[in-house]
Amino acid sequence: MAEDSAPLPVPPGPPGPSEPSGPPSRGWAVALTVLVGLWTVGVVVVVNAVLWLVGDTLVISGLSMPLPFWLLGAVLTTLLTGVPALLLSLLSRMWFARLAGRQWLLLTLFGGLLGAARLIPNTYHELYLAVLATVAAIVAAAHRAVTGRREHADGWLFWLSLAVGLLMLLPWLWVGSFGGRLETVLALLAALAVSWLAARPLSAIAAIAVHFRDDWAGAIVGGLAIGVGLTALTAGVGLPAVQLLAVVAVPPVAFALAALHRKGRPSIVALLTPAIFGPLGMIDPDETSLILGLRDELFWGLVGAVATLGVALLVAVVTLVALRRARWHAWAAGVTAAVVAIGGAVIYTAVGQPGFAGERLFVVMKEQADLSGLSGVGDRTGRIRQTYQRLVGTAERSQAPLRKALRDKGLKFTPFYLVNGVEVDAGPVVRQWLESRSDVAKVLLNPHLRPLPAPAPPMRGTVDAPASPQWNLTLIGADAVWQRFGTGKGIVVGSSDSGVDGAHPALRGNFRGGDDSWLNPYGGGATPTDNNGHGTHTLATAVGAKVGVAPGAQWIACENLPRNLGSMANYLTCLQFMLAPYPSGADPWHAGRPERAPQVLTNSWGCPSVEGCGLPSLRPAVDAFAAAGIFFVAAAGNTGPRCETITDPPSLYPSTFTIGAVDRVSEVASFSSRGPTPDGLTKPDLMAPGVDVLSALPGGRYGYLSGTSMATPHVAGVVALMWSANPALIGDIEATRSILERTARPAQPSGESCGTPADVVGAGLVDAFAAVTAAAPRPRP
């Protein structure tokens, strides 16, 4: 049945004996209410922003915020905002102040209860959403049972409320993307439950909006009061930093809600559900860390939140005007909601990121390949080929039953052989089944990045090519090696990183070429590219003209970090390419070319737990390279100066040659990670320059970067010089390691002592000239 605009409710009558009239009393009540509202918003924003910044800083430092601190934050926010609201409700003698205080207190308590769900780690997002939805629904049902009242929306206002809510979703359909199917459904259910929980208190606060005879005054004052309540509630909705985005985006819908309330009974659930679902369902909390950079998902989430805020304010104005100048019918409101929904679909398909990009699983099989005895194979190509064949054979045989079961269930998967395992496109329900199988050792989370509206621009250099060898090269004596022994010709160095600017003057001349020297698994072309800059910088330090340790060596590369968050599958894809290169698009299991494998690998990356890796996850892969005679160099990490910070694969394995960083006076950099490892191994193995290292960056110029990422390619370049000077040493991993360690020069420790001195400085600073001299064959008498 169509309805006209409902008449304005009659405002409360004159104050009774308990509510003395007069400007002073009312003025103080208004001032106190405003102060409590501002305090509530400020506390919610400041406390949760500080907690997120501290937690993210800890993650970047290789630590994690203890989960009880998130609960403590929820309790602290509840106390700091709830107590003033309680006092306002008890002490104020004006009806609107008491009303606001009571409902703000209630919403603060609701937000605190929902905030307790943050005890669930970010990596278990589906579980968090399920708990959030369950808690919100239970609390809402209990609240309804206690109050005994039900809220019913007017028919035409239901559709108009839905249209307003869908408008709040439009920016997220542009900047965000859906996770997995189950994750998306759970996010929708959570948004629905939270909206249901909020409906009764927000409806009560709306009495302030209808008290005013002027529409604009009612919408503004009522919107502010409703917005404070929404801020208190959304303090508990979403994992960091999604919760902060929700605090920016959701409360401004209060003004449209207040405007609608002046015409009757809108549907708070229909309005709020899309607004809350936007940040909750379309932003992955794992991807909001600053570790991904300032132009990744956090940036786009902030763009979406600010855009939603702007849309909310604009919609409130339009709603006021539309309701004042037009007579609305149910069919017109329904058509409006339909038009907005169609517009959202157009935005999502035309400029958004359609599809589902949920988390995946990595299944590690119990059986791993037996690679014993391969060090005795004299022929290098034969040794690598046998390694490849054993790995593939073991994986094909042992994975056969699991692959059949996955096909029978209609699940997509990608098999891997370097670590005998399978990446499965599935979530927590399938994980339980996989973990119950007798042929499965473990099931790891395997993060899958959600797409962005636009990639972040790569780093660009601002420095011209150096005219002479830089301090880092002269410090290790690389320039002296070139004059006496050569520059690394005949050796190929492989880099797994963010990619390579193959057109850079420092690197274009020694790219090996062919159809098996570059791999971009994410849909890239045949030309090496780098959308970040990290890979270009590290590889050029190893083999680049004018800036590299071994500028005469060739290189091949694979992109394993399109953004600064990887996974087991990301890393193994590139490592398999390094063991047996293959043309882009070919089958790595059967099209691999072991004879084209590089001799040395430089790896300036690590796989922490946030990327799904456990401590032993990548060890079979690193051991396979040792068995094949390929020298595997990796960065120690940048989580110093604390001890026991070499914790992420692949830096902590015995077969990895792990590199820390020093500055230009050979003092260990404060950020360089220290040992011992969790297994008690002494790490790092060696040190190299890693502070303000000049190297190539995309675009043709050069720039300075610091990190153990910068130190690692120095050692890879030294190994290339050694093996070029003495080809008989190629593949002899133990002899090469021994030479590097015994010829190292002293490095100066910094910070606290860790285990043994070697857990800070390793064997010392790499000495290229001494190492190559020791490796070079002795002239015949």
Automatic annotation (TrEMBL):
Segments of skewed composition (Pro residues): 8-23
Keyword Protease: yes
Keywords: Hydrolase, Membrane, Protease, Serine protease, Transmembrane, Transmembrane helix
Segments of this protein annotated with the region Disordered: 1-24
Catalytic residues in the record: 497, 534, 709
Bilayer-crossing regions: 28-55, 67-92, 104-121, 127-144, 156-174, 186-209, 216-235, 241-260, 267-283, 298-323, 330-351
Start and end residues of each Peptidase S8/S53 domain: 488-749
Pfam family, one: Peptidase_S8
InterPro entries cross-referenced by the UniProt entry: Peptidase_S8/S53_dom, Peptidase_S8/S53_dom_sf, Peptidase_S8_Ser-AS, Peptidase_S8_subtilisin-like, Peptidase_S8_subtilisin-rel
Keyword flag Protease: yes
Family per record: Belongs to the peptidase S8 family.
Stored PANTHER family: EGF-LIKE DOMAIN-CONTAINING PROTEIN (PTHR43806:SF67), PEPTIDASE S8 (PTHR43806)
Protein name: S8 family serine peptidase
Organism field: Dactylosporangium roseum
